[in-house]
């Protein structure tokens, strides 16, 4: 009996596949689309998590946020209650003073935002997101001016609502494209403000303007711009991470004297990061699962083509069996052909997915990993095995007499 080596079977499988290049390409298309989609989606999910983790690292683990509305439920997950979506509560200067007076071992920074039209002698009027806070906000949030590019505003400037401004990296370039912004003047709502600092580049943002595009002023100026003294949120920096829980409890105690429990949320950076990562992970898995459906469709396509191939090669199979080929050798050869088809699709999909990830990464956080590539190729290999077994088994069980009679 003939007992071909594995090397001979692989070479024979490749020769068979290369005889029908067009069919091979079309058969692998489903696998290509599936693997490309899986690579892209996992890369976006992974890149998004890395990006968000880096953003929170800059804040540190000892930051507590106080915001309007019920953001987290009692289980520590994002809340779906109507109050989390419809609340229009803003905090007040009294709340700020109460927090400052009662909180120990921490620094309290208010946050009030508005949109203001600004202009300079170097640039036309531009609508800019303006954030008002206090002298502690810059150091608490790692907003550091570029070397030799000024400073954050001082307590004295904060107390006096001085007409000073700190510019985000990109905004400084937009407003002063051909010169240094430091020491220059800008006009905002009729006020002339002096640029005392330009922040180092912070990178992009998701769902809103980046800090690089912000304008930062003492909070009293935002109150003047808006005609109100509403505060959007508080950032509270604990001196030690061990004091976080005690500070959160004290904040709730202070605010519950004035607000209903659904009117505000108190949470720390690790709690927020954990919830965001959980959501991103769940979405990535769900979307990847949907994309993986095309891998199943591709596997069915491979199985159908292999059945057609076996029908076309029935006489060849009969002849090989008649001269002593083992059924196992025939099974292995056709199984190898199915695996090669799916692996070609997997390899092309990985290349396209990697190129797509590189393109997306120019505009959006995306990062491919060795793990996602290995999983994608492993799944495409497994698809070839799973959907190639039935046709290969059928080929190995053909009767040589019946096969030789086949026209």
UniProtKB/TrEMBL annotation:
It is found in: Cell membrane. GO terms for cellular component: plasma membrane. It is a multi-pass membrane protein. Keywords: Cell membrane, Membrane, Transmembrane, Transmembrane helix. Residues 290-399 form the ABC3 transporter permease C-terminal domain. Residues 24-253 form the MacB-like periplasmic core domain. PANTHER family: ABC TRANSPORTER PERMEASE YTRF (PTHR30572:SF4), MEMBRANE COMPONENT OF TRANSPORTER-RELATED (PTHR30572). Belongs to the ABC-4 integral membrane protein family. This is ABC transporter permease. It comes from Candidatus Shapirobacteria bacterium CG_4_10_14_3_um_filter_35_13. The lineage of its organism: Bacteria, Candidatus Shapironibacteriota.
